[in-house]
């Protein structure tokens, strides 16, 4: 990777800018670069907004950039932030393995690196990790399928299908492991049947957590395995995938008086999914309060830069292949029709108008 050349070019560009404006960035406690994967899911927009505010409250200017789910774009953005002289980097990687060169340079310059929500892997040059309990997210999703099954009379066999997240995202593997810890005993005992037999993570993964990709896989599963049989539940690992799965199910008549909707799980409490929960198309989602994660992350940045002790609450779960990254885990919350109002509206995460 030609990072030194890129950095040199960007440095020259920022030096030229400095001649004109005096400085590439405004004078304050310094600039913090934030690199997020994409804007198509509302959660990353809320993450960005909350982090900019939390950093501002502590005296920092944020340089927030989105990488349009393109790995080279994200690497470039991070290299340019380094060249412009950021004090810290907050990165939610598209592909966790792609940052080792850039971060080696960050380390040399004593720039603090925080892995945000997703783990940066294969490098020791990452200082801290702020995320939600991803294994716990999967456990909540698995439990919500078991609860729905019990509420509907525990009929056997209960037909389920499984979707996974993106294989280049460590979170996808953690969520899968958490959900499997709950569902496997039911699958092994034959109470839950997966008619497609597609269970292993590599068989069910969805590249870039893409809803359209999930929709076409669901279309194929429905036509190949559920001609006569009713699909009772779909374990979907996040809200983007849930939207694709719901469209597919509705396309063949699920959610009508003749054919009840399948149980569908999710993650992120995206606005469109809360609406789907209110309509009865989606059963649950997992709310991860990005305001809390943003505030934890801003504290990490400030404490690390000012030499204070950085608060972490997990020092064993997140081995990134080069080291165990000290982590702060925020607790995820299961949301359904019964509690979305208190968790999301009363708490001020969404206005009533947004979810109507
Ligand atoms: C995040 C999820 C998100 C997914 C797709 C994961 O790394 O933890 O909240 O739904 O990426 O963006």
UniProtKB/TrEMBL annotation:
Coarse class of the protein's main subcellular location:
periplasm
Lineage, top-rank taxon, reads: Bacteria
Every Periplasmic binding protein domain range: 32-308
Q: Which InterPro entries match?
A: Bact_Solute-Bind_Prot2 (IPR050555), ChvE-like (IPR049784), Peripla_BP_I (IPR028082), SBP_2_dom (IPR025997)
Task: Show the GO MF annotations.
Answer: carbohydrate binding
- Protein name according to UniProt: D-xylose ABC transporter, periplasmic substrate-binding protein
Q: Where is the signal peptide?
A: 1-26
- Give the family from UniProt: Belongs to the bacterial solute-binding protein 2 family.
The alphabetized UniProt keywords are: Signal
Which cell locations does it reside in?
Periplasm
Query: Sorted alphabetically, which PANTHER family does this protein's record hold?
Result: D-XYLOSE-BINDING PERIPLASMIC PROTEIN
Per the record, its GO cellular-component terms are: outer membrane-bounded periplasmic space
């Amino acid at each position: 990777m030609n990072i030194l050349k890129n950095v040199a070019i960007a440095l020259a560009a920022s030096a030229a800018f400095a001649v004109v404006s005096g400085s590439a960035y405004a004078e304050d406690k310094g600039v913090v670069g934030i690199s997020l994967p994409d804007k198509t899911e509302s959660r990353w927009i809320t993450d960005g907004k909350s982090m900019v505010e939390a950093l501002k409250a502590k005296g920092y200017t944020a340089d927030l950039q989105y990488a349009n789910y393109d790995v080279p774009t994200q690497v470039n953005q991070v290299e340019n932030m380094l060249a412009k002289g950021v004090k810290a980097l907050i990165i939610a990687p598209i592909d966790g393995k792609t940052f080792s060169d850039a971060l080696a340079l960050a380390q040399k310059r004593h720039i603090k690196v925080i892995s945000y929500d997703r783990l940066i892997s294969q490098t020791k040059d990452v200082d801290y990790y702020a995320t939600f309990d991803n294994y716990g997210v999967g456990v909540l999703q698995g439990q919500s399928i078991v609860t729905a099954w019990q509420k509907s009379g525990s009929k056997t066999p209960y037909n389920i299908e499984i979707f996974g997240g993106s294989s280049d995202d460590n979170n996808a593997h953690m969520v899968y492991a958490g959900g499997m810890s709950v569902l496997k005993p039911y699958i092994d005992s034959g109470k839950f049947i997966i008619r497609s037999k597609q269970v292993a993570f590599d068989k069910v993964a969805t590249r870039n957590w893409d809803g359209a990709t999930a929709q076409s896989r669901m279309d194929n599963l429905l036509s190949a395995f559920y001609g006569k049989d009713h699909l009772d539940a779909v374990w979907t690992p996040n809200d983007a995938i849930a939207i694709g799965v719901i469209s597919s199910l509705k396309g063949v008549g699920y959610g009508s008086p003749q054919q009840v909707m399948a149980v569908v799980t999710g993650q992120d409490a995206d606005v469109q999914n809360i609406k789907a929960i209110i309509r009865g198309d989606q059963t649950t989602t997992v709310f991860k309060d990005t305001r809390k994660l943003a505030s934890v992350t801003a504290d990490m940045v400030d404490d690390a830069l000012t030499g204070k002790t950085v608060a972490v609450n997990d020092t064993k779960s997140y081995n990134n292949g080069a080291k165990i990254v000290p982590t702060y885990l925020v607790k995820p919350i299961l949301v359904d029709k019964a509690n979305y109002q208190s968790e999301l509206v009363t708490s001020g995460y969404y206005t009533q108008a947004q979810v109507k």
